[in-house]
Specification:
The chain has about 280 residues and is α+β, with helices and mostly antiparallel strands. It contains four helices and 18 strands. It folds into four domains: about 60 residues, Nucleic acid-binding proteins (OB fold (Dihydrolipoamide Acetyltransferase, E2P)); about 60 residues, Beta Barrel (OB fold (Dihydrolipoamide Acetyltransferase, E2P)), CATH 2.40.50.140; about 70 residues, Nucleic acid-binding proteins (OB fold (Dihydrolipoamide Acetyltransferase, E2P)); about 70 residues, Winged helix-like DNA-binding domain superfamily/Winged helix DNA-binding domain (Arc Repressor Mutant, subunit A), CATH 1.10.10.
Length: about 280
């Protein structure tokens, strides 16, 4: 059976002036008609003849006909990859995936508006009409078989942000991961590349990430950040560790507990003064 969107080995069953026809090897072996697919002449390696096997990728041409190619696309069925937006149109965007015909990314499969020239993380699927299309809803296509362990440092691309769950990340653009909502700090947007630490490997293989270091390391970094903010504000922060968590997060990018730990450490070290309304640098 010829499989759309995949690389497969097919056999040359007929030679014609404009190329060769290929068929599934099992079908051709029993000399049945079966489904045949064209490999254009310019794609046929020199010396290939009837009866030879060839590894090809199967997709649809501009007239929606099944066609084979010896080229390897950047994206295959059920996988994810970064692709450049070649152009945008009335029905969606078209992505450069390494073949003559660009790949359609329909509007309804875009998690945000895309622009010509940018790169997007996409997966390949077959739509209801039997055509290959791209989607930016990559969650079901990401792998869960990474070799990463707890506390490993990873890099990933944010592809979705949920108010309920947090930021969904594709580690190395292929592995499923999540920065839980409670671990989100600063301004993180879809498309951002983020460095993080693996805080947990779930039973299903998905990764939980933290963009913060272990607490004893992070406390030192947070203390340095408080000192930097003091320096930038003339030695005064117009709030202390008793204000709301929202203000602390907005002004420092820290949780209230993290801010209190770091400020307390600086206070013990004699580097700051905390009064009823502010923090002062000594």
């Amino acid at each position: 059976m010829i499989r759309l969107g995949e690389k497969q080995v097919l056999q040359i069953v007929k030679e014609v002036e404009f190329g060769v026809y290929l068929a599934d090897t099992a079908v051709s072996a029993v000399k049945e008609a079966g489904e045949r697919i064209l490999l254009p002449k310019k794609q046929v390696p020199e010396g290939k003849k009837t009866g030879d096997d060839m590894e090809v990728f199967v997709y649809r041409d501009s007239k929606d006909r099944l066609i084979a190619t010896t080229s390897t696309p950047k994206l295959m069925l059920g996988t994810t990859a970064l692709l450049r937006v070649a152009q945008t149109g009335k029905i969606g965007a078209f992505l450069d995936w390494g073949l003559e015909k660009d790949l359609l990314l329909p509007f309804k499969q875009q998690t945000r508006s895309v622009r010509e020239g940018e790169t997007v993380l996409a997966a390949l699927y077959v739509d209801k009409s039997g055509r290959l299309c791209a989607t930016m809803n990559v969650y079901p296509y990401l792998r869960t078989d990474s070799t990463y362990q707890k506390d490993d440092k990873v890099t990933g691309r944010v592809y979705e942000i949920s108010d309920k769950f947090g930021a969904f990340v594709a580690v190395d653009n292929i592995f499923s991961a999540l920065i839980p909502r409670k671990e989100l700090y600063g301004k993180i947007q879809v498309g951002d590349i983020t460095s993080a630490r693996v805080s947990e490997v779930k039973e299903d293989g998905k990764l939980s990430l933290s963009i913060r270091e272990k607490s004893y390391i992070q406390m030192g970094k947070d203390a340095e950040e408080i000192l930097r903010l003091l320096e930038c504000n003339g030695g005064v922060l117009p709030f202390n560790d008793r204000v709301s968590p929202e203000i602390i997060r907005q002004e420092t990018g820290m949780s209230k507990n993290e801010f209190k730990r770091a400020a307390g450490n600086l206070l013990k070290a004699g580097k700051i003064i905390i009064n009823e309304t502010a923090i002062l640098k000594k």
